[in-house]
Design a protein that fits this description.
Cytosolic phospholipase A2 catalytic domain, about 375 residues, alpha/beta, eight-stranded mixed beta sheet
Amino acid sequence: MASKVRAQPTSQGREDDAGRGRGQRRKRYDDHADLVLEGGGVKGIAHVGALVGLEEHGVTTFPRVAGTSAGSIVGALAAAGMPSSALREVMRRLDYRRFRDRSGIARIPVVGKAASLVSQDGIYDGEYLREFLGNELHALGVETFADLRVDDARYQGELPDRNYKLVVMATDVTHGRLVRLPWDYRALYGLDPDRQLVVDAVRASISIPFFFKPVTLRDADGTPSTLVDGGVLSNFAIDVFDRRDGQPPRWPTFGVKLLPEMPAGRIHLFPLLGLVPRGPVNLFELLVSTMLVGHDQTQLSQPWVDVRTIRVDTNAVGVLDFHLGEDAANGLYRSGRMAAGKFLSGWNFAEYKRDFRSDADAGPARTRA
């Protein structure tokens, strides 16, 4: 079944609201939306606020969730059926300071970080996140992607290997391609998606290059591929659930965006960047910010993307602010909640389909959903 949390419905955000009188029977999928959750480092709790805001305005059923990096953490828990109230508490307990978990050579004073970067391609292990998320998923009865299969025919797609409640974005740097897990396990690696651990896919998706050690995925023949943060190639895969059969969507896809656009937003990605003298010294910050935001810049300017994007103001917190305090975390949550409510106050699914999903106006991306 789809992930669902009951909430009092309102008139906002429903399919084909225009022209329907009060008291009329709601359409079958009025409370449905697929979600795409952008990566954003430590800003992930803003996604929880956005989910709560959607539920408060009547959008309570999320058949499928896609996430990149931090978005994949929240997405995995939501797809596993965790109620938003519990999800907020779990994300508050997530100790970002422990993300910087060094071991072995990285613990050597002064030279350890540099040596770890050279020898292991990343400073931090990322094992804290794997253990934390693995325990939470286990408590929800989720281990492998088989536990997140879509069994309800109403929510199944065209291809069997895409019938999952969760899709996690990662980047295969060995082959230079974006991978959508579990969708691509069989086609690209010869692996049974049902047997792959959900937490391993999320661990790959959060692997910010140079910060976290990448994940090695071995295909059916034992050939290794190196996986890193999905944001390297697509931090905001808003079209991942769009239909490809030319039929109109039964429900919308909403994207939750946490990061400002480039180049003006660069200072908000890394607040301390303005204190660093211009020149080679801040090249690494620029590289990471461009990685997270730059690739999606072109599509973000498209009206069919903008109209279904919930933009959350997270500028007060940097992507790599691992010392995130409770006040800042609460502020991110409130921003997400308010942004979702504001978005739904202006959302009209009938107008969206008319403007962007009609056959006469459809481009390659617009014919899906």
